[in-house]
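Much of our argument rests on the idea that a fold can be written as discrete symbols. The record that follows shows the chain in one-letter code together with its fold in token form.
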Amino acid sequence: STVSMDATAPSEPQADDAGAPEVAEDGFETLLPGVRYKEIARGEGPAADYKQSVTCSYTAECTKTGEVFEKVEQRTLRIGDADVPPGLELALRRQRAGTRAVIQAEWRFAYGEDGRPASSMDGTKAVEPRTDVTWRISTLSLGRGEGESEGRDKLNELREKKDLGNNHFRHSNWRKAAQNYQDVLKDLNPEAYDECRDEAVSIYVACANNLVFALMKLGDWLKAEQAVCDVLGVAPDDEKALYRAAKIALHLSKWAEADAAILRGRSLYPASPAFPRLESALKTQRAKYKERRKQMS
């Protein structure tokens, strides 16, 4: 005889947390092989979403020694912008207002093969290559998603993005600094801010000048040349921009452009020793060129 199946029989029980990361005895979940996360306080409201801003404080320490190399009292990060190492970036998606957590990341999810230099301005210590890192994060609040702010709020967001770029800049992460500055400049039109145009121009010029320097450090001289022209289009008398315009023109052997920037710089900033030095370098470069031509003829 055959045995009929009971259509009303219950199916195999399914765990409510099926697919959730496994929690170890020490309370840590494995978010990825190499990244562990432990929630100390859950916080309130929904968890942060992709491209939402998270305002938090955190400390970073060497997991092996416990030495703290960075203390951040308050910083606003946008999920997906990769302004922090992958281990911490991954944990941002778990944050709610009031969440406190500990993140442990192997070196490949922290500062990688190269580590990170110290910054006296930021009060950070050097991170050695292949250092495993532990972050202790407290989330203060969650903010708007990308593109949701306008006016003064938008300008504040762009300033925060610039400040993150400056942090990368001071730690010699030229590529990431350049990316941040380019993101700010792409979204910042000073003419759109009637009531705070001077402030918008100030942010634009600071970002653009630092972008020029970062591109020079990366050896991308043609992009640096375009970027410095953009600065001078907004602030034609800016000292840093004139100096870097002359330096870039010298590097590219564009002597007429170098001469024009040097003359303008000397006229506007007669007390600056930088422009006479560039003028001397230009004379030396021209003399060497003439000597080469003479030898070839």
Summary: The longest strand covers residues 133-145. The helical segments are 86-92, 151-170, 174-187, 197-217, 221-234, 239-251, 255-268, 274-296. The beta strands are 29-32, 35-41, 52-62, 68-78, 100-105, 133-145.
